[in-house]
Amino acid sequence: MRPVEHPDPAGEKTAEAIRQEIAREVNRVLRVAFQDRQNTGRLDVEAIEMALRSAMHHAGTAAPGELLNFDAPPAERRIIPCSCGHQAHYQELRSKPVLTAVGHFPYNRPYATSDKVTPIRKFRYPRSHGSPTQS
């Protein structure tokens, strides 16, 4: 059985997406803080600290989603060997909510079913293992 490969094995796109999310959150907080300083002439350090903490929690929720989510497999990878000896055919991306210490995020993964008629087995594409996993 062939291993299922992640489309970005080195993680460059994932790391860049996480960096962009963090930068967006920090820029949003700094924009608000500097606007407040311009309006009032003061800088509320405690409020900035709390806003930055909240922004990092938000970005921290996005990071696992970027790391774990799959895209739909390319056409040549939509049929994979099944542990029952038949072929498993890609059906759709399925989403499952995941709760972490910093919040919820959706976990998307390809879903395939075996072409064996009875019993029908359902499989998920594994991230780094050589064979599908039974669900």
Report on the architecture of this protein.
It is built from 2 helices and 5 strands; from the N terminus they run ααβββββ. The chain is elongated and about 70 Å long. It has one domain (1-135). The protein has a 5-stranded antiparallel sheet with strand order 1-2-3-4-5, covered by helices on one side. The protein has 135 residues and is of the alpha+beta class. Helix 1 (12-40) packs antiparallel against helix 2 (45-68).
Summarize the structure.
Helices cover 39% and strands 25% of the residues.
Write the layout of secondary structure elements.
Layout: H1 12-40, H2 45-68, E1 79-81, E2 87-100, E3 103-114, E4 122-124, E5 133-134
Helix pairs in contact: 1-2
Please name the defining characteristics of this protein:
2 helices, five-stranded antiparallel sheet, 25% strand, 135 residues, single chain, disordered C terminus
